[in-house]
Every structure is written in structure tokens, then in C-alpha cells.
Amino acid sequence: MSSNSVPEIGPSTPYFAGHFEDVDQKIESDILGMWLFLAQEIMFFGGLFTAYSVYRHAYPDIFQLGADQLNYLMGAGNTMFLLISSLTMAMTVYYTQHGQFRKQLLCFLATMIFGSLFLVVKYFEYKEKWDHGLVPGLNWDPHTVDFAAANLTSPPENLKLYFILYFTMTGLHALHMVIGIGIGIAIFINMLLWKKYGPNRYMAVEMFGFYWHFVDIVWVFLFPLIYLI
Amino acid sequence: MAVVADRQIIHETEIRPRHYLNVNHSFWSWFFTTDHKRIAMLYLGTITVFFLMGGVFALLFRLELMTPEGDLFQADTYNRFFTLHGVLMIFFFLVPSIPATLGNFLLPIMVGCRDLAFPKVNLASYWIFVFAGMFGVGMLASGGVDTGWTFYAPLSTHYSNTSVFMAAMAAFFAGFASILTGVNFIVTVHKMRAPGLTWFRLPLFVWAQYATGIIMMLGTPVIAITLFLVALERVWGVGIFDPAHGGDPVLFQHMFWFYSHPAVYIMILPGFGVISEVIACFSRNKIFGYHFIAFSSLAIAVLGFFVWGHHMFIAGQSVYTGVVFSLITMLVAVPSAIKVFNWTATFYGGNVTLESPMLYAIGFMGLFTVGGLTGLFLAAMGMDVPLHDTYFVVAHFHYVMVGGMVMAFMAGLHFWWPKMTGRMYPEFIAKFNAVIVFLGFNATFFPQFILGWLGMPRRYHAYPEEWQVLNVMSTAGATILGFGFTLAIAYFIWSLFYGERAGNNPWGAKGLEWTIESPPTTHNFHHIPTVTEDPYNYTGREEVNVQQ
Ligand SMILES: [Cu+2]
Known about the structure:
The complex is a heterodimer of chains A (229) and B (548). Chain A has helices at 23-58, 60-68, 72-97, 101-131, 147-150, 159-194, 203-228, and strands spanning 134-135, 139-140. Chain A has 229 residues and is mostly helical. Chain A has one domain (23-228): Cytochrome c oxidase, subunit III, four-helix bundle (Four Helix Bundle (Hemerythrin (Met), subunit A)), CATH 1.20.120.80. In chain A, a hairpin with a 3-residue loop joins strand 1 and strand 2. In chain A, helix 1 (23-58) runs parallel beside helix 7 (203-228) and helix 3 (72-97) packs antiparallel against helix 4 (101-131). The longest helix of chain A has 36 residues, at 23-58. The model of chain A is unreliable at 1-14 (pLDDT under 50). The two termini of chain B are 44 Å apart. Chain B is an all-alpha fold and 548 residues long. Residues 1-16 and 543-548 of chain B have low confidence and may be disordered. Chain B has 17 helices and no strands. Chain B has helices spanning 2-14, 27-31, 36-64, 75-94, 97-110, 119-141, 155-159, 164-191, 204-236, 249-283, 290-303, 319-347, 356-379, 381-387, 391-421, 427-454, 468-498. Chain B has one domain: Cytochrome c oxidase-like, subunit I domain (Cytochrome C Oxidase, Chain A). In chain B, helix 10 packs across helix 15 and helix 15 packs antiparallel against helix 16 (427-454). Helix content of chain B is 67%, strand content 0%. The longest helix of chain B has 35 residues, at 249-283. At the A-B interface, helix 1 and helix 6 of A face helix 1, helix 8, helix 9 and helix 10 of B. The structure holds copper (II) ion. Copper (II) ion (CU) is lined by residues 261, 264, 310-311 of chain B.
């Protein structure tokens, strides 16, 4: 409704779209909407976690063998990156609400950098799996896996199942990271060029924070399930 | 707050002579609008197209079933027809039907605000739906699907050589359209209510949409990820649900029905909401048991998540699991019956008149009751063994989906059409048509109960000769039904151009939507109303029937 929206001036102008009655209504709606969106995300990943649990229960030895093929140091490093980025994200929201634009900008930049580092490491991890022939359907030739030593009771063929789940779960998580960084860049440009977000207008930043923390939390569950146990 | 005051002045000066339909005629103003009313109309047009496509496939396979031999179409073609009918009708018509059209149009007006909480998300929902529809069209163009709408593995993942990928993606994206609608509704009901509009002053239509929104939000992501895995399995030729590769096909069924049973309530709850409005209006009576009807919607939404196993009694699920699912399934009958009893009680002491929306609503009550009661047959584990996968099941869910939801949709469309378009349709033809649809429906599906009881399995294109009479009856009924729906579409379109002007409140109904212009202005209200009375403040027998 461009006809009746309030003009966007700067970080101190209370902003809300024309169909809201006041700023509080907009803020409350945004927060509730974001929580519901995240509830939806939980159900989405929940389906994958269910499939993971069922197959882990069916083929414990295969999952053991699969986890042995992963580079847990890379996984641990990535966990660090995401936890740090969550901290800087929380600080970004704090500094936005308190109008400290320099710190806001630096913290948000750090968040984006640590998020990107995560994806870089992810790239090298995926590349390693490709070189070892551990990508089911595209390049499956597990020449580095010592099936004999693993003493499997389930068919060795089922290792594919583990790696499909590995790629689907981490891949969808990485996709969420990519989307997050994409939106993050747009927010960053707004911060840098127009100081758009401040004490009176911080919802976009805070909502982005919700999303970012959620994606981090998904990883916090993925890391132990896939790499460690 | 100064800003608010400024905005109200803007509303008063700019919008008086125009309404949402004629405010702007450009392509852009329609297809990229954020006005919930325009989006509702876009959805209405789009799902009508899918409804007609799904209907044509139904008529085609009913034609095949006129004769016992499989003579008109090959078995493979027949499989595609019933699958396409199912996929189109469920994902592209029934799921979005009432929420995305009537819900989209009316929910913000009924809660007394200017738009849904997230208008751009609403527009995104429509475009995601269109995007999904393109996969749907792609699915048709590439030869269709033959797995049944249930996509059971490993047929869908490995053995079928039709375009399962397209179909799965179509349903996947249509799901996200539905999630966004659900989230939008929930937030709107929580945060956008007008002053004085407490939860228990909300129309029951809003309660029903709210309960539907919960299911859309929590159920749909699960089918999305399930179909995503199926698509992945097909494209990469890997095994997730295929037992030949260590997968578990029963896991697919669990994940599929975890959504697809609650989806039944996505398809019927909004219908309950419409019926509550229509019955109260044409009985000129306060709805009986308001709180019971409101909470029974929530009860159905919650219970609906714990009954999916009743689709798997003979799929290798343990007997004890089956018993639990069977019991919870029967529990769902309680809130459903509460609704029907309360609607019936609303007639009592009222001044009942039989306008066309009311005819559809009364038809709904009878047909839904039959559909619900036969559901109890199928919920009983012992009964389910012989009845499973027979025409009894087909008849049961069509009594709920068509006899329930489509009848309710028709009731709602006839009831709010004057509000949405500002025009009246020809009431006499509409009444006549309500009877046609009711008769055609029963002629189509009642014989299928008998056929199923006699043991005719679903999804075959040939059958023994002794079942021909009943099958011919069913096909004849389907033709009548098809005629009825076509006639309705025809007079609705006619009314857009030649219909009488409706006025603001042609039915003398209560509710915020009847206090504003027909069709409403873009911002719905000139001033946000303050609500001071309970809904359905009809006075029963004393009131003289207004107008008409
Ligand atoms: Cu069910």
C-alpha cells in the first residue's frame, strides 16, 4: 500500500506499514510471525531428524562407520564459527537498539564473515567426500572405507543411506546459511550506506537475528548427531 | 500518536468513491497487489482452473467405469487419470480452497483490520502457488503421474516411469504457499483484532481459520521434506525409502500421513467455519454453543495430529500401535459431532429461511454426517481390514471432501459473493443448482459405498459385470455434478456483469463484513471499528426477515 505508508526517513523515524495501527502492533506481529516461521522450520528439519533416528536405530554399525569417514575437526571448527557468529549477532541487535552504529556495523560484519567461513570449510569437507567417492548417486566409489575392519552386520551398501542423510541434512542447513548471508548482505548495505537501523527501527535486524540463531541451533544438533555419536 | 491521526485523514479523503475492484485496472495492480481481497480473487480464479482440470480427469475415468471391461482407456492411462484427479484436487483445490479465497478475503475484515499482518507474504504465497502450478502443468505436459496422489514408495521412487519428480515438486511448493497463509492467519488473529474484539467475540469462521492455520503451519513442512526426499531419491537414483537400498517404505507412509491426515482437517475445518456463519444468519438466531464450536475446532486441529496411523492398519504397523491410533481416531468424532449438534440446535427457535447458501449448508450437514459416521467404520481396525482400499473408502472421503468441503465452499461463495463483487447472482437458479449438486453428489457417491461393501477395490479400470449397474449410476451422478458446478461458474461470471447491485447487507446478516460497502474499499474500513457486542446477535423468531 504505497499510497498510505509512512515515508522512510532514517533510524529515528518510527516505521510501520500502512495497515498497522501503531508501531507496537507491528513489532508484536513481526515477532510472533517469526516464531511461527521457525516452528515451521522445526517441523521441516524434524522430518529429517526422524528419518535419521529410524535408520540409525536400524543400522547402528553403518552409522558408526559413516561417522568415522567424517572429519570431526572441520565439524568442530565450524561449530566454533557458528557459535561466535551467534554471539556477534546478539551484540549487533544490542548495539542497534542502543544506537551505537560503529559497533553495530562491526559486529554484523563479523557475523557475516564467520558465517562465510563456515561455508568455506563446508566446501572443503564436501570436496573431500567427493574425492573419496562418498557421494551417493553422483560419485559413489568408497575406496577409502575399510569395510572389512568395520565388522558390519548390515549390508555395506547401506553406507549410501548414511551419506544421503549426511548430505541432505547438512546441505539443507548450508542452504539456510546461504539464504541468511544473502539477506544479511542486504541488511549490511542498508546499515553501511544509510544507517537504516537504530533504536526506533531495529525489527529487521532483530528478526534476522532470530533466523540466524535458529540456523545455528540446527547445526548444534547436527554436529553431534552426524559427526560424534 | 500523531502518525496514526495523519493516516486516518488520508483514508477519509482518498478512498470514498472507489472500491477495491475498480481502484486500478492495470496488470501490475492486480498481479502484484498486496490487498488481501485482490489476492483472494486471484486465488479464486486460479483454483477454479485447477478444479476444472481435476474435474475433467474425474469425468474421464468415470467414463471408463461405465463398462466392466477396460475398453476405453489402457490401465496405464486410467492410473494417470485418477492420480492427476487426486493431486490436482487435493494440493491445488481443496487445501487452498476456503482459506486462500474466502479466508483471505474475510479474515482481516472480520477481525476489523485493513489487511493481513504480512501483506507481502500473502502475495508471495500466491506466487509460490502459481510457481507450484507450473510444476503441475509440467507434470501434465510430461505425461502425468500414475502413483496415486499418495506417492507410496517404492512405486513412486523406483518403479513408476512417469513424472513423479514434477508432481512431488508441485506439491512441495504448493505446501509453502499454504504454510505462509497459515502463519499470516495466526498472526492476524492474535495481533490485528479491532478494539473490543475479544477472542470470544470472534466469528466462528475466524476460529476455524485459526485452527486451520495451526495445522498448515505444523503439518505442511513434514510433507514438504518427505516429498523432497522422494524427489531426491528419484533424481539421484539413491535409496531412502526403497527397501532394495536399505530404506523403509513404512517410514514414508508415516511421514506422508503425518501431514496428509491433518490435511483432511485443513480441507474441512474452514468449511465448518462457513457453515457456522451461514446457519446462524439464515436461522436468524444466536449460534448455539458458541464456545463449544470454537474449541471443537482447536480440538480437531490438535487431535488430528495423532491419528495418522489409521491409514496403516494393514501396512505392517504393530497391532498395539494400531489400537492407539484407532481410539484417538474415534475421539475426533466427538468434536465433529459437537459441531453438528450445535448447528442443528441453532435452528431451534430461529426463523429459518432457505436461501441458496442455506440450502448448501443444510446439504453439507447431511453429507458431512454420513462421511463422518462412515469414517468410524474405517477407524475400527477389524472393519478396516475388509474395507481398506475399496470404494467404501473412496465414498467416505468424498462425502467429507466434496459433500463437506465443496458444499461448504459453495455455501460460502453464495453467501459472500454479494460482498466480494457487489452483485447478486440469480437466486432462483442458484437454489435449483443447490438441489442439482446435492442429488448429483449422492448419485455419484452413494453407489460407491455399496460397491465398496461388496468388495470392489479402488484404482482398477475393469471390474466384474455384476457391479455395472451401480457404476453406471455413479457415472451418471458425476455427469449431473459436473453440470451443476459448470452452471454455478456460469451464473457467477454472468452476475459479475449483469447481476443486481447487492447493497451492503443483502442477507440482513450480522458481522463486521456486513457493515462496510459491497465491494469493500481497499482499506476495508474508513475508521477501525470498535466492537461492543457478541457475534451472531440475531434476535431469533421476533426479527422480521430483512429484504429479499
Ligand atoms: Cu486419516
